[in-house]
């Protein structure tokens, strides 16, 4: 990104710290220029415990979700679920307010897992590539982040590491959260999918805090 624009953004980002309605500046992801796509495994054996709470806690009711605000520091959020196939639950145009986001998370968190036990991460990654691509030309200066939650590592149609490499080559940061206890999954997510230092696990402790730190870090590295 252009240095001057970056500087302007940084100044904008620092200013609201004076406002009493804002949360602590160091971990404030409510005032970033972000497009986030959450990719959540919903196959039969997925450990979904805490996933939607973690996502929900990333945002506060002060977060400007969607577009069209007079203050351009807004966040768009998309959701994809996958098992043998991926589903675009919400593209980056759908959720246009914090309450839209809240309702979408409530709906997802109460939707039962698929009866299908296949969990093809390449399907989730492919859908994420298409969702990010479909927004090309609009908000190109907003950092793109893909966050994947799964407890298993399997694929069928494409090599996930190639898809991840492609996404990262277009400037997208990929974060992974291993929601189960399988070491092989953790290793594959870390070595083949996640951006450097962006592979997390629900068992690490406070995943919301980890993701918030990572979102801030990825944004400043833009
Ligand atoms: C998988 O999902 C895509 C996109 O939703 C759809 O176009 C395709 O037909 C689906 N494939 C199968 C085998 O259901
Ligand atoms: C989307 O995909 C098309 C076709 O592959 C490509 O030409 C274009 O650059 C992509 N756009 C983005 C924003 O990645
Ligand atoms: C986890 O971190 C978030 C964000 O920093 C914080 O709001 C929340 O209270 C923490 N949760 C726990 C259980 O400590």
Automatic annotation (TrEMBL):
Residues 1-19 form the signal peptide. Pfam families: VWA. It comes from the Eukaryota. GO terms for biological process: innate immune response. Residues 35-215 form the VWFA domain. Keywords: Signal. This is VWFA domain-containing protein. It comes from Caenorhabditis tropicalis.
């Amino acid at each position: 990104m252009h240095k001057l624009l970056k500087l302007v953004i940084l100044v904008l980002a620092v200013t609201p710290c004076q406002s009493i309605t804002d949360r602590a500046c160091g971990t404030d992801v409510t005032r970033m220029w972000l497009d986030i796509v959450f990719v959540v495994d919903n196959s039969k054996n997925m450990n979904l415990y805490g996933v939607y709470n973690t996502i929900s806690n990333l945002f506060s009711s002060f977060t400007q979700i969607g577009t069209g605000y007079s203050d351009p520091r807004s966040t768009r959020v998309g959701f994809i679920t996958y098992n043998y196939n991926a589903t675009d639950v919400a593209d980056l145009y759908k959720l246009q307010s914090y309450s839209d986001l809240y309702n979408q998370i409530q709906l997802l968190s109460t939707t039962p897992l698929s009866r299908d036990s296949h969990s093809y991460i390449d399907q989730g990654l492919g859908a994420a590539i298409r969702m990010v691509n479909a927004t090309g030309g609009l908000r190109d200066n907003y950092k793109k982040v893909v966050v994947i939650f799964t407890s298993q590592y399997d694929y069928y149609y494409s090599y996930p590491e190639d898809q991840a490499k492609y996404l990262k080559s277009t400037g997208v940061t990929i974060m992974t959260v291993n929601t189960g206890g399988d070491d092989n999954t953790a290793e594959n997510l870390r070595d083949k999918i996640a951006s450097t230092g962006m592979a997390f696990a629900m068992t690490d402790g406070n995943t919301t805090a980890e993701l918030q730190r990572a979102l801030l870090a990825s944004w400043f590295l833009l």
